[in-house]
Amino acid sequence: MIHYSIASIPGDGIGREVIPEAIKCLNKVAMKYSFGLNFEEYPWSCEWAKEHNGKVACDDLIHELSSFDAILLGALGNPKFLPDHISLAPLVQIRQEFDLYLCLRPAKLLPKIKSPLANKTTEDIDILVVRENSEGEYISAGGVFKHNEPEEIVVQTAIHSRKGVERIIRQACIQAQNRRKKLTMATKSNAMAYAMVFWDEVLEIVAKDFPDLTIEKMHIDALCMALVKNPERFDVIVASNLFGDILSDLTAGLVGSLGLTPSANINPDNASPGLFEPVHGSAPDIAGKGIANPIATIRAAAMMLDYLGEKVASGRLEDAVIQHLAESKLRTPDLGGTATTEEVGNDIMKRI
Ligand code: NAD
Ligand code: IPM
Ligand code: MN
User: Fold this and answer.
1) If you placed Cys at 264, which of 130, 131, 239, 303 could pair as Cys (CB 3.0 to 4.6 Å)?
2) Does the C-beta of 84 come closer than 6 Å to ligand 1?
3) Confidence at residue 270, expressed as pLDDT on a 0 to 100 scale
């Protein structure tokens, strides 16, 4: 029997509530399809930092995680204890040091889920945000001069490499080939004359290799508006790190809740462990109440199985979520119900 080793990092807030539901479902589906999952849990979090000199994760986390087949993460961050740019640094570090440059954030309207947009059906909203995940605006390059003085100057630089921009656009094209053959690139070349003009140029070059696709670019502001007015026109959207981050919360909103949308961080070209997580964060406003929606994390777990090569099991887990939504009345409060995290997790597990 094949075994996969999975590092689980529940993290903070609702991360600790949704990860156990995903693990329950993963164990059930692994039993059904006769493969093994060995989980090792890492308690890295803002809580852990209290006893570890303010560190959210151990210093050699990259070495520690490198031997796993995949990483399943809940969420990090508790702004009451630590500033977010400190508590979230390990997450960005994992993405960058493992070079997990391809971030896939699908947002499809699911059966019996109401979009905040009127009269939308499951046919109308089916968007994949492909986010550049290794460089761009998230390179921590910058500095502060004359801190706390009236003349204070702060610099934060984004870095866009030809290799980085080309490979993410290429991967987005490949995704579009397997979907509805349409790619939209988020740009802002009307204002960002170096970075986004460069993205436009690279798009033109890569597009030549994909004559079967309809490829367009839109300025990020107009793109946000069009997503709300007319989500049907979008299939795959490729974006820089920051634009992709923002767009994927927007598309999560369009399909009803951040509690539904998963995320895969992978490198198709190397052997680093992929990182799978919900798009959402630790949600301190609802943490500890047992009412977080576990579906985004369960669907991230399904993406992890697909990445591990367990395609049938992955499909079964995703289908169990769809069946749950179609047939059960259980809904967590983000979807207008009163069900608990555990009730939803159990119902999905039962349907596997
Ligand atoms: P958030 O995604 O945690 O929450 C935004 C809103 O969505 C909140 O009202 C929350 O209650 C709701 N929500 C999110 N997930 C939900 C779920 N599964 N079920 C029901 N409702 C859900 O974003 P935020 O409030 O901006 O950030 C909170 C903390 O999380 C911050 O520390 C932030 O830096 C961190 N964060 C971490 C990650 C990560 O670890 N990957 C991602 C985003 C934010
Ligand atoms: C996400 C999160 C992270 C990001 C933060 C918490 C660093 O918002 O995964 O979407 O911006 O990438
Ligand atoms: Mn985000």
Assistant:
1) 303
2) yes
3) 85
